[in-house]
Write a structure and sequence with these properties.
The complex is a heterodimer of chains A (about 110) and B (about 110). Helices cover about 0% and strands about 55% of the residues of chain A. In chain A, strands 2, 4, 5, 9, 10 and 11 form a six-stranded mixed beta sheet that branches. The mean pLDDT of chain A is about 95. Chain A is mainly beta and about 110 residues long. Chain B has no helices and eleven strands. In chain B, a hairpin with a 6-residue loop joins strand 7 and strand 8. The termini of chain B are far apart. Classes of the chains: A mainly beta (about 110), B mainly beta (about 110).
Chain lengths: ~110, ~110
């Protein structure tokens, strides 16, 4: 059974810092990994999808890497801004299944 | 940019009542999902739907739950007799193909009193 862990659960940083968010998963037989952003009381916004054959995927100030063999992904946020404050979740498909298994998320606060 | 639309955004219902949550998927997407998030907990899978039938469901998705695509555009989740523990944010998600990027709606916050 796939388990997804995100540590730490929360992070507070000053504006401008480069950040690394971590995600680990137990079953490395995944098709892809998806990073989402969730604002308080809102839905999930897809940030990046990284395929199992890829090592990295970039979108603007965001860069996601994937190391299947070690069961890890990182989301790198460059030059953080207060508008980046949100909860960031990673999700992977359960092996052989369509369903996504989510981590509990990491609540990021970027202070001006 | 195409988006998944959910209605209502918030619903309050009495225990034992039936509720229907609605979703308009991204057009040309063929895979549909419902997830829920109880306050403070992880997002958890309920059901997937493809080709007008359920393709997978979780243990949570018991006989009280049902899904359908009544008119070829909407995708609905029905809870027949709501319980207090059904209070959660319910998310609809859609995908263009199996195991591709999933796009989520803004959610319906269901409060059972």
């Amino acid at each position: 059974k796939q388990e997804v862990t995100q540590i730490p659960a929360a992070l507070s940083v000053p504006e401008g810092e480069n950040l690394v968010l971590n995600c680990s998963f137990t079953d490395s037989a995944i098709y892809n990994l998806q990073w989402f952003r969730q604002d308080p009381g809102k839905g999930l916004t897809s940030l990046l999808l990284i395929q199992s054959s890829q090592r990295e995927q970039t979108s603007g100030r965001l860069n996601a890497s994937l190391d299947k063999s070690s069961g890890r992904s990182t989301l790198y946020i460059a030059a953080s801004q207060p508008g980046d404050s949100a909860t960031y979740l990673c999700a992977v498909p359960q092996g052989g299944s369509e369903k996504l298994v989510f981590g509990k998320g990491m609540k990021l606060t970027v202070n001006p | 940019e195409p988006e998944v639309t959910q209605t209502p955004s918030h619903q309050v219902t009495q225990m034992g009542q039936e509720v229907i949550l609605r979703c308009v998927p991204i057009s040309n997407h063929l895979y549909f999902y419902w997830y829920r998030q109880i306050l403070g907990q992880k997002v958890e899978f309920l059901v997937s739907f493809y080709n007008n039938e359920i393709s997978e469901k979780s243990e949570i998705f018991d006989d009280q739950f049902s899904v359908e695509r009544p008119d070829g555009s909407n995708f609905t989740l029905k809870i027949r007799s709501t319980k207090l523990e059904d209070s959660a944010m319910y998310f609809c998600a859609t995908g263009g193909a199996r195991n591709t990027e999933a796009f989520f709606g803004q959610g319906t916050r269901l409060t059972v009193v």
